[in-house]
Design goal:
By secondary structure, the protein is of the alpha/beta class. The protein has one domain (6-234): Aldolase class I (TIM Barrel), CATH 3.20.20. Helices cover 44% and strands 21% of the residues. The chain contains eleven helices and nine strands. An eight-stranded parallel barrel has the order 1-2-3-4-6-7-8-9, surrounded by six helices. The protein is globular.
Amino acid sequence: MWRRGVAWVLSSKLKKIAVEKRSRVVLALDYYPHGRDPLDFWSSLLSDVGDLVAGVKVGLPALLSVGTEGLRELVESFSGDVYFIADFKLADIEDIVRSVALSVLGMGFNGAILHLFPLCYSRLGVREGGRSLDLYGVASMSCPSTLMDAHLDELLDYAAKLGLAGVVVGANKPHAIRRARERLGSQALILSPGVGVQGVEPGAAIAAGADFEIVGRAVVASPSPRAALERIVKSHPPPGW
């Protein structure tokens, strides 16, 4: 069972925003239309739909498109309205992961996703200047990832041992989501990517036990992003913890 402690305090901002907006959506910003300036496109998009999303996940494609200063500008522009998660594929020795996480915190992010499979971390609390970075461990990806899924219980237990804010489990694996909820308890946050373009219907991961669904191209590449988001939000039960 997931151990009680500081992790629940660290994840309270995401929960608070979700309850206020009645949204369980984390919007993934990696895609942008060919020929458009990515930073302008994402800023315009968030200005239009920011009231419908609890969080925003920013990945390596976005980082490579606009650089650290571009992402810092984006985060600073909307940090009061949404919870920003950096998904920079962190998977290294503890010193490297901690160093990158501190840089992510310095850019204004609220949380970061890291891979659990290295199994070489001891304790990863990241704090600086009175701020903390919430950490979410990847327990199961939305691709087949047979090797990771064969060690699901081990990865879930490892996440609990590290005292992370939550875990990431692919939305197309309801059995893994249910297992994570069963093993980690009701207070652990479960984020599920893969909704929409990867074939998972909105609401399916929530029904299996996830807290948030991560949605990207189904909204960002839609000709009507707001309408697409409204449909997804309506498919979810209102958040309440």
